[in-house]
């Protein structure tokens, strides 16, 4: 997945579109994810974990190859919808497998497994920046990554034995959309800032460095890589700090890091300041949403599945709206103002941080 984002600047030039149009085209990816999430659990129950990965990851990679050939934003958005569908099924399957391994091993691994997602984004950012610096086309870049990723996936999972479910429960009726309770709404407001900060870094950091500072492709790609590597390291070691200091304290420092990071980007006068800002933004946004998901699962007002689903579905709206909004603002006011939009949501997060400890049953 991370292969796409370091080349967005090159794809924008290839399609000859402005930032606002690129933002609307990018909505295809989260749209495909959101729609498929409504029935992804049924797909995961029907097919083996190893078959999902051995088919899903090559399909995701191939969709990016076709995206690399796009000459119009409509074609680009349509292809991203298909890629988003693959992402949704893969995400559900991998997180479910991590939860099952965690349950049977007795060791907490969820945050650490998400850390490797961030490390993967770091590797993809560095690789993409290198290919861009060498002038290699996005299509050829994506084809090479497709071959490597597909071969590795098949090699690693051809004989993989998936963990057994935590328990054999009857399959609940799929409700599709779950309306959140008041407590879940507070968690939604709390976690929106981290989702916007992370989304802004993924979608616009490379283009920000290119347009604001006219940096070389390798430096522009470094902005995405730094955000990913800091996010990965924080997630890798987060559990021990949450156990020691509690989720509210860890969240408070995370929010402060995001405020400082966004400030460095918005008010930067040199590339090094902006790069430091993206580093802070990645680390600050690392654990906010996982902590909110944990709090949602522990609430007693509804079932854990309903609370987690309603939180994810509402928060994911930010990923639907962020690309076009940030792109529109960036095109007409400048990308500094796009990142400045994170400040109001960060203020909201400070005032709703106590939602992490609300466990009362609501009527």
Q: What this model shows, in words?
A:
By secondary structure, the protein is an all-alpha fold. The protein starts with 7 loop residues before the first helix and ends in a 12-residue tail after the last helix. The chain contains 16 helices and no strands. The model has no long low-confidence stretch (mean pLDDT 88). Helix 2 packs antiparallel against helix 14, helix 3 packs across helix 6 and helix 10 runs parallel beside helix 12. It is globular and about 50 Å long. The longest helix is centred in the first third of the chain and has 33 residues. 48% of the residues are buried.
Blueprint (SSEs and pairs):
Layout: H1 8-15, H2 19-26, H3 28-37, H4 40-46, H5 49-67, H6 73-105, H7 110-133, H8 138-157, H9 182-213, H10 217-245, H11 247-266, H12 271-284, H13 288-298, H14 304-332, H15 335-340, H16 342-351
